[in-house]
Design goal:
Chain lengths: 159, 716
C-alpha cells in the first residue's frame, strides 16, 4: 500500500492507505485523532469539518491521496498550547450541549473569520448552514462568532 | 473501598419536606451515600452496604477533590455542571474542586435512567442531603481535632476555619470525618436564600474539553485491540438475513471477519473505510420485515380508523368544533449515531456505550449472551453521549456489538452509519388526533374530548419515577397507557374533559421522544385552542388566560405576552403565536413571530418564559429551552420520517430536514419566573409549546388551519 505524507497539526505524518481512503478514517482509525467526528460520512452534516491549507473541508469525503504534501489542521491543532479566540468565545457563550458537532462548528467558524472579520448575520447563515447541530445551539454559535470576531478585531489579528 | 463498616451509621436529612437517608460507605476517604427515605429500612436492618439501594454518593478525597458519582449520563443536558454546582454549594467548596462521574450499571442504583427530565428533580434532594452530611462530618472532625465547640467553626472554599484562624482543608479532614461517630453540628442543608453558587449563570464544566476536541465519546475511546465493526442491514425495517455469501468480502484488504447477527451481517476490519467496502461486497438475500406491506397512507388510515364514534355532547352544547391532526414518525437523529465498544471473554462482557439506561443495557446484553440469570457478568460503562432525546434508552447496538465480539473472538467498536441510524432505529410514532370542543350558547366551553390514536410506544425501561420503572419491568405492555394517563392533562377549565389513548399496533419500532406523548397530544391541544379562539372570535392569549387553572401558567403566559409585545403592529404576512405547557413540575410559555412571505415560513423571534422552580443553572436552562425550540421548529416545519413499503425514506440530514443556522431565529430570549423552590424538569419542557406557538403563528399569518405535520411536507 502506498504511504501518504502530510502535515497534521504541525507534525509530519505518514499513513499507509489506498489513495481513495477518506481522510476521516486515516485520522480517526490510523492516527488516533478523534476530534473530527463522524456524523454522516457523505459531506452533509459538517461534524468532521477540519482545515486543509487553512480552508474548511470535509475529511469524510476527501480521499487521502489528495492531501499528500498539504497542511491539515483538526480541532486538536487549532489552539496550539492555549485556546484559539474562537474556542474561547465558544466557552464564554457556553455554546456546547452534547458537544458532538462543536469541533466541526468551530473549524467552520474559524474559516469564516479568516475571510471576513466582521460577518453579518447573512454571512454567518451562508458560512455555517452546512453544519448541523442537533441540539439546536445555533443562537449561541452565532453569538460566539460575533464575540470572537469582535475580540479579533480589537486585538488587530487574523484568526 | 476498605474498612467498610458492617452497620451503616445513618443520618436522616430533610430537604424540601422530604426525608433522605445518608450514611458513610467508606473510609479512610470520606464517602457519603444518600437516598430518598420513602422505603428506608431502619438503621438496625442489617443490610450489607454493597447491596443497599442508593441514589448517589459523594466522595471527599485526601487531596481535597470532591467526586460526586451518580447514575445518570451526560448527553448535552448539562447535568454534570448542575450536579457539581449543587455539591459545591452545599459543601462550601469551589466548583473547580468538584468532579462528576457517571456510574457503571449497578443494581444498587434505585433508578439508573436519564430521561423524563428527572435528573435534577430526583437528585437535587439526595445531593443536598449527602453534601450536608459530609460537611457536618468535616466540621465535627475539625472540632474534635482542635477541641473547640463545633458550632463556632465555619466552612469556606473547601476548608474548615476556627475563630482563632486555624484552618484545615477537607482533604486532610476526610479520614477523621469518615470515622466520626456523633455529629456535633446538624446535617442541615442551607436555605436556598443563602445560595451563592446555585442560581448563578454558570458555564459548562466540560466546555474546554469539548471545544478542544478532548471530550471522548464512545468511539473516541482507546480500548485496546477493539476493531472497527459495521453491519449490513436489510432494505426494510426489521428485515432479516435469509442467507449470505461473504467470500468476496473476506478476501478484501483489512477485513478481519464476518458474523451473522439477528439484525444483519457484521463486518470487522482494520478501518471503517475497509469495513464499509467489505460490507458493500457481501451478497445477502433478505427476508422482508414485518412492516413491508405498510406505507404512510395505510398507517394514517389505520390511525384514523382507530378513532371512535363521536361521543354524546354534554348538556347545553350549542355547537361542537372539531380539530384533526396528523403527526409523522420522527427519528431522534442524535448527532452521534448509535455506537458501542464491546469486549467478551469467556463468561464476562464489558460494554462502553452512551446509554440512557445502563442497567437495561446490562440486562439485554446478558440475555443475548445467554446469561439471563447472571447480568452481573456484564459491565456497562456509560460514556458521554452525543445527544440522546430518548433514543439511547435502548440497547440494540450493545447487543449487536456483544454478539459480534463473541463470534469474532475480539473486541469490537461498532458504529451505526447515519443511514443505519435513520432507517433502522426507533421512532417517535406517528399519530392521529381528534379533538372536540363543546361550546354553549353563550360561548362558554362545556367540554373537551381528545382521542389520540398512537402506535404503542415502547417503554420497557419505564420512566424515571419509581412507579413506571417498576411497571416497566413487570408489565411492559401497560407502561405506555399508564404513562399517558399519568402525564397528559388539560390545564384549562374546559368543563367535561376527557383524553383517551387509542393504541394501535404497527410493527415499526418506537421509542419515546423529547416530551413523549406531549409532543403530539399537548401540541394538538394548544393548536386547537387557537382554532377554538378563532371560532369564538376571541384573542388566543385572552382565551387562554380566562380558562387557565394554574397561577404559574398565567404568570408565564403574561410574561411572554408582555416581553414579546403580544398584539403589536406587524407587517402583512408576519404574525405572532403563543402556547403554554405545565409538566415535569415546571411551566412554560412560548411566543413566536413568523414571516410567511418568503418561500418557507421564517421564524423571526422567539420569547420564552419558564417557571422551573429553583433555577439551578440559568445558563443551562436557557440552553435547554433554546435547543428544544429548534427541535420543535424543525419537526413542526420540515423534518419528518416517511415510510415506503416498510422502509424509511430519509437517510441523512440531507433529506431529514433539520433546522440549520439559516433557518434559526437570530434570538431566542428566555425569561425565568420563580414561584417556589421546588426543582422542576427542563430537558423536555421546551418542546411542545414551541411547536404549537410556531404552528399558531403560521396559522394566524396565513389564515389557514394547519392540521398535518411537518407543515412543509408535500409528500404522500
Ligand atoms: S461526517 Fe463529514 S460532513 Fe458529516
Ligand atoms: S451540541 Fe449536540 S449536536 Fe451540536
Amino acid at each position: 500500500m502506498p504511504a501518504y505524507q502530510f502535515i497534521l497539526n504541525g507534525q509530519t505524518v505518514s499513513v499507509e492507505a489506498s489513495a481513495d481512503l477518506p481522510l476521516l478514517w486515516a485520522l480517526r482509525d490510523q492516527l488516533g485523532v478523534t476530534g473530527p467526528k463522524y456524523g454522516c460520512g457523505v459531506g452533509v452534516c459538517g461534524a468532521c469539518t477540519s482545515h486543509l491549507e487553512g480552508e474548511a473541508f470535509r475529511p469524510c469525503i476527501q480521499p487521502i491521496g489528495g492531501v499528500a504534501g498539504t497542511r491539515v489542521t483538526t480541532i486538536e491543532g487549532l489552539g496550539g498550547e492555549g485556546l484559539h479566540p474562537v474556542q474561547q468565545a465558544w466557552i464564554d457563550e457556553d455554546v456546547a450541549q452534547c458537544g458532538f458537532c462543536q469541533p466541526g462548528q468551530i473549524m467552520a467558524a474559524v474559516a469564516l473569520l479568516r475571510k471576513n472579520l466582521d460577518p453579518s448575520d447573512a454571512d454567518i447563515d451562508a458560512a455555517m448552514s452546512d453544519n448541523v447541530c442537533r441540539c439546536g445551539t445555533y443562537v449561541r454559535i452565532r453569538a460566539a462568532i460575533k464575540r470572537a470576531a469582535h475580540a479579533l478585531r480589537e486585538a488587530g489579528r487574523a484568526p | 473501598m476498605t474498612d467498610t463498616p458492617k452497620q451503616p451509621e445513618t443520618v436522616s436529612v430533610v430537604v424540601d419536606r422530604r426525608r433522605f437517608l445518608t450514611w458513610v460507605v467508606a473510609s479512610p476517604a470520606l464517602v457519603v451515600a444518600a437516598r430518598l427515605g420513602l422505603d428506608v429500612p431502619s438503621a438496625e436492618a442489617a443490610e450489607p452496604i454493597e447491596e443497599t439501594a442508593l441514589n448517589l454518593y459523594i466522595a471527599i478525597q485526601a487531596d481535597g477533590r470532591v467526586v460526586t458519582t451518580l447514575p445518570r449520563t451526560e448527553m448535552g443536558q448539562g447535568i454534570t455542571t448542575g450536579v457539581a454546582m449543587l455539591t459545591a454549594e452545599e459543601l462550601d467548596t469551589r466548583l473547580e474542586s468538584v468532579d462528576v462521574r457517571t456510574a457503571d450499571a449497578d443494581p444498587r442504583w434505585v433508578i439508573q435512567l436519564t430521561g423524563a427530565s428527572s435528573t435534577m428533580r430526583y437528585l437535587a434532594g439526595p445531593i443536598r442531603a449527602a453534601a450536608a452530611t459530609a460537611r457536618a462530618r468535616l466540621v465535627t472532625a475539625a472540632a474534635n481535632r482542635w477541641r473547640v465547640p463545633a458550632h463556632t467553626l465555619t466552612t469556606v472554599r473547601g476548608e474548615v476555619i476556627a475563630p482563632d484562624g486555624r484552618r484545615a482543608g477537607y482533604g486532610e479532614l476526610a479520614g477523621d470525618a469518615a470515622r466520626v461517630l456523633l455529629l456535633l453540628v446538624p446535617a442541615t442543608p442551607k436555605p436556598t436564600s443563602e445560595y451563592t453558587v446555585v442560581g448563578q449563570p454558570t458555564g459548562r464544566i466540560d466546555a474546554r474539553d469539548i471545544v478542544t476536541g478532548a471530550a471522548k465519546y464512545t468511539l473516541d475511546l482507546d480500548i485496546p485491540d477493539a476493531v472497527p465493526l459495521v453491519v449490513a442491514r436489510p432494505p426494510t425495517i426489521r428485515g432479516s438475513v435469509r442467507d449470505f455469501d461473504a467470500s468476496t468480502a473476506l478476501s478484501m484488504p483489512g477485513v478481519l471477519g464476518v458474523a451473522r447477527l439477528p439484525t444483519g451481517v457484521a463486518v470487522a476490519a482494520r478501518t471503517y473505510a475497509q469495513a464499509f467496502a467489505a460490507r458493500d461486497a457481501l451478497r445477502i438475500s433478505w427476508a422482508p420485515g414485518p412492516a413491508s406491506q405498510l406505507s404512510d397512507t395505510h398507517i394514517r388510515s389505520r390511525l384514523r380508523d382507530a378513532i371512535g364514534a363521536r361521543p354524546l355532547p354534554p348538556l347545553f352544547t350549542a355547537r361542537t368544533l372539531e380539530g384533526r391532526f396528523d403527526f409523522p414518525y420522527l427519528a431522534h437523529a442524535p448527532m452521534e449515531t448509535q455506537g458501542c465498544v464491546a469486549r467478551v471473554t469467556g463468561d464476562r462482557a464489558e460494554i462502553w456505550m452512551g446509554a440512557q439506561d445502563p442497567k437495561f443495557v446490562q440486562r439485554e446484553v446478558a440475555e443475548a449472551l445467554g446469561w439471563v440469570l447472571a447480568p452481573q457478568r456484564v459491565t456497562v460503562h456509560a460514556s458521554r453521549a452525543g445527544g440522546g432525546f430518548g433514543r439511547r434508552f435502548f440497547a440494540e447496538a450493545a447487543v449487536e456489538a456483544a454478539l459480534a465480539a463473541r463470534a469474532l473472538g475480539r473486541p469490537v467498536k461498532l458504529m451505526w452509519t447515519r443511514n443505519d441510524d435513520m432507517r433502522h432505529g426507533r421512532y417517535r410514532p406517528a399519530s392521529h388526533h381528534r379533538i372536540l370542543a363543546y361550546v354553549g350558547a353563550n360561548g362558554s366551553i362545556l367540554g373537551w374530548n381528545h382521542q389520540a390514536a398512537i402506535p404503542t410506544v415502547e417503554l420497557p425501561h419505564g420512566f424515571g419515577d419509581l412507579l413506571t420503572a417498576l411497571v416497566g419491568q413487570a408489565l411492559p405492555e401497560v407502561t405506555s397507557a399508564l404513562f399517558f394517563t399519568l402525564s397528559q392533562h388539560v390545564p384549562y377549565h374546559f368543563g367535561l374533559v376527557s383524553q383517551e389513548l387509542r393504541e394501535v399496533s404497527i410493527p415499526i419500532p418506537t421509542a419515546s421522544f423529547r416530551s413523549v406523548f406531549t409532543s403530539q397530544v399537548g401540541v394538538a391541544n394548544e393548536v386547537f385552542i387557537d382554532q377554538l379562539a378563532r371560532g369564538l372570535g376571541r384573542d388566543p392569549v385572552e382565551l387562554r388566560r380566562s380558562q387557565l387553572k394554574s397561577a404559574r401558567l398565567k404568570a408565564v403566559l403574561d410574561k411572554v405576552a408582555q416581553e414579546g409585545q403580544w398584539g403589536r403592529a406587524l407587517p402583512p404576512g408576519v404574525a405572532q403565536g403563543v402556547a403554554v405547557l405545565e409538566e415535569w413540575d415546571s411551566a412554560v410559555a412560548h411566543l413566536v413571530e413568523v414571516d410567511v412571505t418568503g418561500e418557507a415560513p421564517r421564524v423571526l423571534r422567539v420569547v420564552i418564559a419558564a417557571d422551573v422552580g429553583l433555577p439551578i443553572n440559568p445558563k443551562s436552562i436557557e440552553a435547554q429551552l433554546q435547543g428544544a425550540a429548534i427541535d420543535a421548529f424543525s419537526t413542526t416545519l420540515s423534518a419528518g420520517i416517511h415510510i415506503d413499503a416498510g422502509a424509511v425514506r430519509e437517510g441523512s440530514f440531507a433529506d431529514y430536514r433539520w433546522f440549520r443556522m439559516k433557518h434559526a431565529p437570530a434570538e431566542i430570549s428566555v425569561h425565568l419566573v420563580r414561584s417556589d423552590d421546588r426543582v422542576g424538569g427542563v430537558g423536555e419542557l421546551g418542546y411542545p409549546s414551541a411547536a404549537a406557538a410556531l404552528t399558531n403563528a403560521i396559522a394566524r399569518a396565513t389564515g389557514t388551519m394547519p392540521t398535518r405535520f411537518p407543515l412543509l411536507d408535500s409528500g404522500a
